[in-house]
Design a protein that fits this description.
Helix content: 55-70%
Strand content: 15-25%
CATH superfamily: Winged helix-like DNA-binding domain superfamily/Winged helix DNA-binding domain
CATH class: Mainly Alpha
Strand order of the largest sheet: 2-5-4
Largest sheet: 3 strands, antiparallel
Shape: elongated
Number of domains: 1
Order of helices and strands: HEHEHEHEEH
Number of strands: 5
Radius of gyration: 17 Å
Length: 119
């Protein structure tokens, strides 16, 4: 990745990161580094997930019981904590996705008003 590409990456807001972590874990259990890589990969490296944001997000989600964690070996046989979505987390993911869709639609209406409006 070039330095220009790095500059164009977007840092995530706290609530958005929680939503993306929940969505990533819908695919199955994963450790923190794999979650970050999955979000970056699925966004074509536009979104960046810093450890300083990811681990507090994982702790928030654990505290809310939206995810669980258990120790296990990573791909390179190192000890890692694997996070898994709970039933409560699945319900929250559905709710947060609905809210996100409504927010994105509202912002879209403002950014791209109907033709002739606001000109």
């Amino acid at each position: 990745m070039t330095s220009r590409e790095r500059r164009s990456r977007i840092e995530l807001l706290q609530g958005t990161l929680d939503l993306l972590v929940l969505r990533t874990l819908l695919l199955g259990p994963a450790h923190g580094h794999a979650i970050a890589r999955a979000i970056e990969f699925r966004s074509d490296d536009v979104l960046q997930v810093e450890q300083g944001s990811l681990y507090p997000a994982l702790h928030r989600l654990l505290k809310r019981k939206w995810i669980t964690a258990e120790d296990g070996p990573s791909e390179n046989n190192r000890r890692a904590k694997f996070y898994r979505l709970t039933a409560k987390g699945r319900r929250q993911l559905e709710l947060e996705t609905s809210k996100w869709d409504a927010l994105a639609a509202a912002i879209g209406r403002i950014l791209r008003p109907a033709e002739g409006e606001g000109e």
